[in-house]
Structure formats: C-alpha cells, structure tokens
Amino acid sequence: MVRPKLKKLQSLIMPIAVALLVYVVMQADLKGICVHVGAIPVWLLLTLIGLQICTQLLLAFQWYRLCRVLGWPASFFKLLLVNSYGAVVDAITPGEKVGGEVARVLQLRKYLGYSTGQATILVTIQKAMSLSALVLLNLVVVVTMANHVAFLQVWPVRLLVFLLLIAIGVFLFFLLFRTHALSLRLVRIKTSRRWLLALINWVGDFADQTASIRQRRGEWILQFVLALLIWAIFPLKLVLLIFPYTHAIPSLVLFGTTFVSYFAGMIPLLPGGLGTFEATMSGILTAYGLTLNQAVAITIVFRFITFWFVLILSLFIIGSYRIFKLTQRRGTDVPHQ
C-alpha cells in the first residue's frame, strides 16, 4: 500500500517541480547569469572548493575516529575511498540517500574486511550522529527564522515542524543511548525465524558498540561536534557567496535556505535531487530581494561546489586508487630475470 501511494505522490509532485524549474529557466537571462557567475572572484571560488575538500576530509576523519574507538581495522585513505563510492552512488540515485549507505556497507566489507554486521553498525552510528546534528541545526533555524519565513509564521505549521524535529531527535537519542534496553527485550523473544534472530543479534551488537563508545570519556561529544562542524560548513558556503551581492539577508536565514533546499533535493525525482534543489534555492533567494539572475547564478555555483565538484573529486579518488592498484599488480607480475 505504501509504495503505490508514494509513486502516486511522486507523479503529482514531479510535474510541479519540472514546471517550476522550466519557469525559472525561461524567466532567467542566461547571458546575465553567466555574467554574474563570471564576476565571482577566483579567491572566493578557491575558498569554497577548499571548504568542500575540508568537509570530505572531516567526514573521513569522523569515520576513522569511530573505527579506532570501536577497535576495528582503520585506514584513513580507505575510508575516504569508501565515502567516495557512497558519494558517487548518492549522486546517481534519485533523492533519497539509501543507495549511498548500501554502497558504503559493501565497500567497507571489500576494503576493510568488515562483516556485514560491523559495516551496518558503523554506518548507522555515523548516520545517527549526522542526523542528530542536522536536527539540532534545524531546530535553531525554526526558532530563529519564524519571523523571516512566511510559512513558519503560521503557528500550527511552526509547532508541527518543531514537534517533528523533536520526535526525530528523541528517536535518535534512544537509538544511540538506549538500545541496550531494546536488546534485553528482544532477547526474551522465543523465535526460530532467521531474520528475527539476525535482527536480535545485530541489535545486541549495536548496543555493545554504542556502550563501548560511552566508555571513552567525551567521545560522543567529539563525534557530535564533528557532525555539527561538517553540517555548518555546508550553508557557510552560501553565506560567503551571498555577501558580494547583499548583507541584508540574515545568516540564519541563509542557513535555513540551504537546509530547506537540501530536503527538497531529497525528493526522489531526479538523480542527486537535480532540479528541485536549484528551483527551491533560487525561489527562496529571489523572495529575499535578489534578482532572478543573481539567485540562479549563486545557486549554480553553490550546486557545483557541493554536488558536481564532490562527484568529480570522488571519481578522481576512485580512479587514482584503481590506477595505483593496477600499476602495483603489473609490477608484481613482471617476471624477474
């Protein structure tokens, strides 16, 4: 029942998203957009690229730190490689990021020798920490942007969004810190079903690993700070892009604009949320006084840095590693004379 409803909803949303994108393209002056893109200083572009590289490195470090704390084999470069595979799959799959997480699980098994259970535990812990930071940042945005965003000025909508974020935050808290209680309850279940037995064992292992992290004083705080820093750098790039045009838009509004566009891009219409992200961000920026050409130019540059550059960088890392392994293999295959 759920899948047909989702497909029906998707079929309703897709024409609207496409129509909005077509409208933005038709109303925009392509020559004017190119002029605005070309006017962006080179130093600013290099700064944005540097921030994005920093984000990818921080993400790999977070995974590396988790592996070390859990006592599992860890290689910073291989974890960077694993995340590169995940980023590529995220880019080519429509909206939802499930495909990227599956790719990370498979690559963790391949490159680090983890079992499926270990890989899924690592991915789940990291994703839970990432979402916890995102929930907190969105709570700050909802509280501070209520007077700046039209739909948040309606108190029932504001309350609904606030309660939804709180509910997600509570779920993540119990997932990370109260899984042991769930494990004890599941162990009491008498069953012969393999899938249920596998789930019970996995939950027990997950509870043990989260407990081992708690034994490292301050580790959860460090992980949460890393997740906050990674997410905070994301909208910071939009703030830097906007400053040459206007200082009138509050920074928190720009943070909110970035996250709203990000969630719009998660609607599974096109690979990587293409179209929905651009239309949403451009629409919000024009609502705050930027011309359509300026808004589209900023969105294009922002999207290139956070999407296309990440895809190119990930493909470069994967390609470089494969060339290195191929060269290494050929070197060992050369017969000694």
Question: Could you describe the 3D structure shown?
Answer:
This protein has 13 helices and no strands. The chain has one domain (2-328). Helix 2 (30-38) crosses helix 13 (292-333), helix 3 packs across helix 13 and helix 11 (251-265) runs antiparallel to helix 12 (276-287). It is globular, with a radius of gyration of 22 Å. With 337 residues, the chain is mainly alpha-helical.
Write the layout of secondary structure elements.
Elements lengths: L1 H26 L2 H9 L3 H29 L5 H17 L5 H15 L3 H30 L9 H23 L1 H9 L6 H21 L4 H24 L8 H15 L10 H12 L4 H42 L4
Helix pairs in contact: 1-12, 2-13, 3-4, 3-10, 3-13, 4-5, 4-13, 5-6, 6-7, 6-10, 6-11, 8-9, 10-11, 10-13, 11-12, 12-13
Condensed summary:
The protein is mostly helical. It has helices spanning 2-27, 30-38, 42-70, 76-92, 98-112, 116-145, 155-177, 179-187, 194-214, 219-242, 251-265, 276-287, 292-333.
Kindly provide the radius of gyration, computed on alpha-carbon positions and rounded to a whole number of angstroms: 22 Å
Tally the helices. 13
Query: How many angstroms does the end-to-end distance come to?
Result: 68 Å
Beta content: under 5%
Unreliable residue runs: none
Would you count the extended β strands for me? 0
What share of residues is helical? over 70%
Shape: globular
Q: How many discrete domains?
A: 1
Q: Which class best fits the helix and strand makeup?
A: mainly alpha
Q: Note the main sheet.
A: none
Mean pLDDT: 81
Name the helix and strand elements from N-terminus to C-terminus, one letter apiece. HHHHHHHHHHHHH
